[in-house]
Amino acid sequence: MQNAGNNIPLSKQVRYMESTKAAMEARVGKAAARLLLSRSFFLFSVGSNDISVFAAAPGDVAALYASLISGYSTAITDLYGMGARKFGIVNVGLLGCVPAARALSATGACNDGLNQLSAGFNDKLRSLMAGLAARLPGLDYSLADNYNLSQVTFANPAASGYVNIDSACCGSGRMGADSDCLPNSTTCADHDRFVFWDRGHPSQRAGELSAAAYLDGAAGFTAPISFDQLARKDLAIQLGCHSTRACYALRTFIHLFFHRYSIKLLLLVD
Fold first, then answer.
1. Does the keyword S-adenosyl-L-methionine apply (predicted)?
2. pLDDT at 254 over 80
């Protein structure tokens, strides 16, 4: 969320969105840009790097959570102020079960302490989103449970077609976790059979299965609604139109506008 892993800090990504909004307004006007933003799906998947870096040199856990939740709250509130209304949130998964964490154990077992750290953050994130939805009129969200999905997957990997849940498909050394995936790294024969592509990230198949679970909301992996339900949320309801004629006119305008400009916006914050 800050700059862990040499990523662009979340706050800076939000500032980039301000520039994007200004460019949209210059092209289609303020009212149309705000309408587009209110219909857009803003996807957040942040916190994993921060927690992993913290675990390497543990400190004040409460301070870590407070910092991450404050950053999350500020980002969503700022985007809401720009006109965003739909937020897809992916919580933190089983960080203690990635190859990089397992390789530190003599037995290759998951790091339970790191998983507990992730679970604690997820509890704070759940409370944050419920509070923001109650405080900010028209804000809708779907919280995807990456943590629970990972638990289900590891409990029965064969059900998802996996033969390996602890090692990297691409890497070197024990469990493929001694280095990142580099041009001269050893790769597995079938990456679709591995949960992890490299020592810290899921394989393409794992990503596809996660996306499908969050989109459909299968087995309770999203709350309070699925990503699909969030994306389909009726703008007329969000804007609170109070007559059938007004709602119909608004829907007609939306359909014509989107057909004309063919604009879809997805903000990935990772």
1. no
2. no
